[in-house]
Amino acid sequence: MRAASMRGARTILAGALIAFGAFAVGAAPGGNGKGNDKSNEKAGKKNERPDALLIVNGKIHTMDGTDRIVNEVLVMNGRFVEMGKNIPRNDKARVIDVGGRTVIPGIIDAHNHIVLVGNRPGWHTGMEHVFTIAEAVAAYQARAATVPAGEFVTTIGPIAAMQFPEQRLPNLSELDAVPRPVYIQAAQGGASTNSAGKAWLQARGVTVADNGTVAGGAAGTTLALRLLREQLLTPATRQRSATDALQYYNTLGITTHRDAGAFHSELPSGGIANENVYTMHRPFLALDRAKELPSRIRVDFLHQDAANDITLPTLSDRLRNSFPFFGNDWMRTGGIGEFTGGGVPGLRAIAANGWRGEDHTLNLTAFNQQVTDREIVNAEIPLNGLRWILSHVPQTTDSLVNRWKAMGGGLLVGWGPTRTRAAGAPAIGPVYRTLFDNGIPLGYHSDGGDITVINPWLNFYTMITGRNLRGDLVNDNQVLTRQETMWLATAANKWFIWEDDVGSIEPGNHADFVVLDRDFFTIPDAQIPRVQSVLTVIGGKVKYDAGVVQVPKGD
Asked: Does residue 26 have a pLDDT over 70?
C-alpha cells in the first residue's frame, strides 16, 4: 500500500509539474552578468588601489566577433576594461609583458565530466599532455615526489593508449621506475600497474598479468576500480582530487567547465562513468565555500528515468527541489543532462518548468528520435529561448538539423581524437564544416573524463585535421579552420552556458585569458596536441603560472 501510495503521489506531482510548471523559477538566468558592472565600477572608484593588470606585448585574439587581434589589454577588478595598443599606463596596474606570445580567451568546455575526474581515488594525475612512454614515466616520477610513501598515484580516465607510439599504456617494468604504487585505467579501456600496485591489487583478489595489465577484461578493471574507491576515497581525498583536476586543466587553458553528470551508484562502483550523483558535488561545493575553486564550473544534472514511467521518480524531485542557473560566478547549476530521462513526459516536464535540457546522440536513428520527440513537446510548450542541446551528433542530415534549428536548439561537437575508422568505411562525423556553415547555434565540447580525453588541444587537432591521435584520417572533408575551432571553444560557448560575459576579451567581461606556450594559429598541425598554457588568469587572478612570463606580485 505504501509503495502504491507513493507511486500515486509521484504521478500527481509529475502531472502538476507538466501541466502548470508549478515549480518553475524562470526560463532565463540572470542576464549576461553585466548587471554587476556598475557595482564593480563603483567599487573601483572607491578603491584607491584597484586590482589592475595591464597585459602588453602580446598577440591577443579577442574573439569579439570581428577577429580583432590586439597588443594590450587592461584588467580592473577582475574584468576587462580596455584593449588595443598603447593603453595609458597607470602606476596602480601590474604590467605583464607576455613577450610576443599568443593570448586567447579562457577556453570553455561546454560538456565534459570533470566532476568524475574530481572524485577519483588516490593521488589522481592528469596525463593528457604526454606523448611518449618516457614522458609519462617522468611525469609520474615528478608526481610521486609529492606523494607520501606507499600511497597510490593514479590516472583513471584522462589518458589514452593512442597518445603513445606503442599504442599501449606504460607497462609494469616501465612503471617500476615510479617509487609509489601506480594504477592507470584508460578512457578507451585497459588498465596497467607496477609491482607495488600489483601486490596491492592481487592481495585483494584482482588478477594482474606479468606485464602489469589488469586481467579479466571489463570485469577485472571493474573490480580494481571498486576496491580503490572503497579503500582510498574520503571527503578529504575527494576535495584534493577536485582541486588537482581543475588545476590540471588550467595548465591546458580551460577556465570554465560545464559538467554533464554521471551514472548513479549509491555505493562505490567499478564503473568508470559512475558516481553517487547526490554527493559527488560536495568537494567542489566545499572549495566554492572556501573561495578556493581553481576554475569555473557549471553543473548539469543527469537523469535516467524510464521512458514509460510517467511518475518521473528522480526527475520530478529534481525539478521540485533544485534551481537552474543558481550559484555564483565560480560555481553555478545549469540544466538537465547529459540525459534528460523519462522520454517525452520527461522533456515535457523540463520544458514546463523552464529548464534547459540536453541529450546526446550516437547515430542517425537516435538523432531523428530526439528531434521528433522535441517536436512533440515544442507543439505544446515552445522550446525557443530555452537553449536546449543535442551533443556529439556524429550522424545528422540537413533536414533534421534544420528542424532542430527551427525549435531554437543547439548542437555541441568535438569528441573525436581517440576514435577509429575501419579501412574503406565512411568518415566518422560530426560534419563540422556542414554544421558550422548551417548557422545553427554550434559549440565545442570534449565529453571527456571517463570515455575520452578532456585536453582541448587533442580535440582541436582532430577538428582541424580530421585525424585521430594516431594520425589516422577519420573525418576528411569536414574540417574547420583554427580560428573557427577556437571560436567554437570560446565565444560560441556563451550560448551553451547561457552567460555573455565570458568567452571573449571585451569590455565588461570576466578577465579570463590564457597565454600559450606557442602560437596555435601558425604552428604545424603536428604541434597542436602539445599546446599548453604558460599563464592562466581567471577573473583577473593568476590561477596557473609556469614561471615563463614574469608576473609582478600584487599589493
From this structure: no
Phi, psi of 356 (to 5 degrees): -75, 145
Summarised one tens digit per residue, pLDDT across range 444-501 is 999 999 989 999 999 999 999 999 999 999 999 999 999 999 999 999 999 999 999 9
What's the rounded mean pLDDT across residues 392-409?
A: 98
- 63 contact partners, CB below 8 Å, separation of at least 6: 104, 105, 486, 487, 490, 491, 503, 504, 505
Could you tell me where the DSSP H helices lie in 172-216?
Answer: 172-175, 195-202
User: Running DSSP on this structure, what letter comes out for residue 480?
Assistant: -
* Residue 44, pLDDT above cutoff 60: no
Distance of CA 117 to the CA centre of its chain: 10
Among 3, 227, 249, 288, CA closest to 114: 249
Element (H, E) at 282: helix 282-289
CATH of domain 120-232: 3.10.310.70
pLDDT of residue 187: 83
Residue 513 pLDDT exceeds 90: yes
User: Of residues 32 and 231, which shows the higher confidence score?
Assistant: 231
Residues 6+ apart with CB under 8 A from 52: 74, 75, 76, 77, 90, 92, 93, 94
Grid cell digits, residue 369:
528520435
Residue 473, phi then psi, degrees to nearest 5? -80, 110
d(CA 419, CA 528): 18
Which residues face 333 on adjacent strands? 299
Please report, rounded to a whole number, the percentage of residues in the chain having pLDDT higher than 90: 85
Cα–Cα distance for residue pair 110/101, rounded to 1 Å: 26
Q: Which three cell numbers stand for residue 414?
A: 568535438
Cα 385 to Cα 98, 316, 381, 406: the distances in Å are: 40, 22, 11, 11
Task: Check if the beta carbon of residue 53 is closer than 8 Å to that of residue 511.
Answer: yes
Degrees to nearest 5, angle at CA 452 with 248 and 492: 75
Closest CA to 283 of 273, 271, 292: 292
What is the residue extent of each domain of the chain? 120-232
Q: How far apart are CA 448 and CA 453, in angstroms?
A: 4
Q: Average pLDDT of the chain?
A: 91
Cβ atoms < 10 Å from Cβ of 522: 10
The 10s digit of each residue's pLDDT in 65-112 is 898 999 999 999 999 999 999 998 877 889 999 999 999 999 999 999
Concatenate the DSSP letters of all residues of 409-444 into one string.
-EEEEE--TT----TTPPPPS--HHHHHHHTS-EEE
- The span from the first CA to the last CA of the chain, in angstroms, equals 67
